[in-house]
Fold this protein.
Amino acid sequence: MTQASSWTAFSTVMRRDLMVVMRRRSDVLNPLLFILMVVSLFPLAVGPGPDILGRIATGVIWVAALLSALLGSERLFRDDFLDGTLEQLTLSPHPLSLLAAAKIVVHWLLSGLPLVILAPICALLLKLPSEAWLTLLATLVAGTPILSAITAIGAALTVSLGRGGALLSLLLLPLFIPLLIFASGAVEAALVGTAAWPQVLLLTGLSLLTLLLAPFAVAAAIRVSVN
Amino acid sequence: MWRWLHPYAKPEVVYRLLGRWLPWVAAAAALTLGAGLVWGLVFAPADYQQGDSYRIIFVHVPTAMLSMSLYVALAISALVGRVWQLKMADWALAAIAPVGATLTFISLATGAIWGKPMWGTWWEWDARLTSQLILLFLYIGVLALYHAFSDNRNGAKAAGILAMVGVINIPIIRYSVEWWNTLHQGATLTVFERPPMANSMLFPLLISILGFGLLAAALIFHRMRNEILRQELRRPWVKNEFGKELNEAERT
C-alpha cells in the first residue's frame, strides 16, 4: 500500500467536507440568511437615517459576521465526532494539524467567502458611504480567516461536550476583539479619508499568524476531545 | 534538572511540601498585608488632590498587577502540563484560575468604586479598563471550560489549550485596545501618568503588593492541596495520612 502525499490528504478532507455540506444545502444558506436578517434588523431598531446607519454599518456587519461564524461552528466537528470520523482522522498517518487546516479552509469557504460576497449588499442596506466599500471588503477578506481559525479551536475544544453553544461564545468572543477593533478602525479611517492600509496590513498579518498557529491548537484540542 | 525535579511529580510529596510551606506563607501574607493596608489606609498622608479616595490604590494596584501575572502563570503551568504531561501542572491550573479571576474582578470593582468620585463615572471605555475586562472574560472562559468536562483530566487539558491561546492573544488584545482608544479619543485619562509618588505612599503600596502576592500564593497552595486530595482520594497514601478521619467520616 502506498502512502498518499500530504497534499492528497489535505484535498481529500476538503473535498469530502464540502461534499457533505453540499448534500444539505440549507446549511450553506442559513448563515447567510442569518446575516441578512441581523443587518436588516438594525435599521428597524435604530431608525433609517443614513447618518446613524452609515456610522454603525461596519460594526453591525462585523458583529453579524462573528455571530454567524459561531452559528456555523457546530458543523465543523460535531457530526464527524458523533460518527467516529474524527477518531479516524486522528489515526491517520498524516499530521492532524494538516487535516485540521483543511477543515478550517472549508469553514472559511462556507462562512467567510459568502460573507465577502454578501458584504456589498449589506453595505448598501446600511447606507455605508461608497468610499469605504473597498476597505470593508479588504478587512473582510483579511479578517474572516481569523474568524474561521479561532472558531475551529473553540469548536474542537467543546465538541465532546454535547451542548456547547453558550460556552463556545464565552470562550471565543473575547479572542475576536482585536479583529473587531482593527477592522472597524480601517473602515473608520477610510470614511474620514485617511490611509486605511496600515490597519488592513495589520489585520492581514494577524490573519497569517493565526492561520499558522491555529491548526496546531485545533489538533491538540481534537486529541483531547476524542480521547 | 529533571532528576532534581522528578520527586516533585509525586502528589504526596507536593502535598506535604505545600503543607509545610503553607503556614509560613500564610503568616507572612497576614503580616505584610496587615502592615501594608494599615499603613496605607490609616497612616499614609492623604493626597493633596484626591484626598482620602486615593487610598483604594493599596488594594487596586496590587490586584491589577497580580491578575495579569497569574494568567501568565496559568499559561505556563498549562504549557508544562502539555509538554511533560504532569498531572500536578493540570491541578496547578485549576488552583490558579479562580484566584486570578477573583483578583481581576476585585481590581475592576475597586477601579469602578474609585472612578465614580474621581472621573464621575463607574465605567469608562478606556484601554486599560477594557483590557482588564477582557482578561476577566478569558479567566471565566478557562474556568467554564474546565468545569464543563465531567472528567477533570480532560477538562484541565482543554482549559490549558485555551489558556495558551489566550496568553498569545493578551498582548495583541492589549495593544489593539490601546490603539483603538487613542484612535477615537486621543489621550483621555492622564490619571495613570502619575507623578513620582512620595515615599510615604510608595512604601505601603510596595508592601501591600508583596502582601497580596503572598496571599495569592497561600490561597493557591491551599487550593492545590485540596485539589490533590480530591483527585487522589482513593490512593493508599491518602488513606494512611487521613486513615482515622476517613473512617470516622464513613461511619457518620
Chain A has one domain: 6-226. Residues 6-226 of chain A form one domain. DSSP finds ten helices and no strands in chain A. The radius of gyration of chain A is 18 Å.
